[in-house]
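HUMAN: Ready with one sample?

ASSISTANT:
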Amino acid sequence: MPVIQVTMTEEDGGATPAQKKALIERLTQTFVDVIGRGEKTCVVLLHEISTDNYGSGGRSVTEIRKG
């Protein structure tokens, strides 16, 4: 079973349900087009991460973006 995982930041409220639906459909179709299998069994996992929940250089991304 193919599993496609997407990790993205949750900006301005995150992706809308319509955007998530479109992303899942298009990623699945791209996998089928390139690999030639998996349409019925392809799983797409979307992970949205708050900018408070990751960081770099000892600071959260929320802090970094504030300047």
